Amino acid sequence: MDVKFPIGQLQVPDNVKAEHIQEWLGKIGTYTTRLREAVDSLDEEQLGKKYREGSWTVRQLVHHIADSQLNMYQRLKLALTDDNPTVPAFDQEKWAELPDNSLPVESSIRILEGLNERIVALGQHVADEQLDRVFTHETNGEISVATKLAKLCWHEEHHLEHIKIALAN
Q1: pTM of the full structure
Q2: What is the pLDDT of residues 111-162, one digit of tens each?
Q3: Which long-range contacts (CB under 8 A, 24 or more apart) does 127-136 make?
Q4: In whole angstroms, how far apart are CA 50 and each of 59, 98, 159?
């Protein structure tokens, strides 16, 4: 198994259908319950574990998931409302070092609870013709609504697996 990409890299079907969207939204909708199962009873030592040398700690991963999902949600909304907006990148490594990352992970789980509820509610109303709407990421180029919905799901699952690997080490 590649511990950097334990569930594989993001794969988006060429022709995204309603079934794909529903599958992704279903996982997003249950994510915080599954994340809580993994991290709720952890002590400080366990929150400091890493899934590989040089990786983020479990605590940093939980905070990163919330930070990144916030950014992706905003980009999704911009793609749905604006005509190909350009969005900035964020330096996730620098964000992971900011002092709010020392807070209990519960603060980020609460963010994710509300955010995922909104992502699911929005995603359930994305029409087929909106799936091809795009935004332009300043470093990654054009990204479609369909790809962003897939990544919102993949990103959470990807890091949940990192957390499980860290805790098994």
Answers
A1: 0.96
A2: 999 999 999 999 999 999 999 999 999 999 999 999 999 999 999 999 999 9
A3: 128/18, 130/80, 131/16, 131/21, 133/79, 133/80, 134/79, 134/84, 135/75, 135/78, 135/79, 135/82, 135/84, 135/85, 135/86, 135/87, 136/84, 136/85, 136/86, 136/87
A4: 9, 18, 12
Residues 6+ apart with CB under 8 A from 53: none
Burial (CB count <10 Å: 0-12, 13-18, 19+), residue 127:
exposed
Q: Is the pLDDT of residue 28 over 80?
A: yes
Compute φ and ψ for 10, nearest 5 degrees. -55, 130
How is residue 51 written in tokens?
Answer: 């899934």
Secondary structure of residue 142 in the 3-state scheme: strand
Decide if pLDDT at 18 tops 80.
Answer: yes
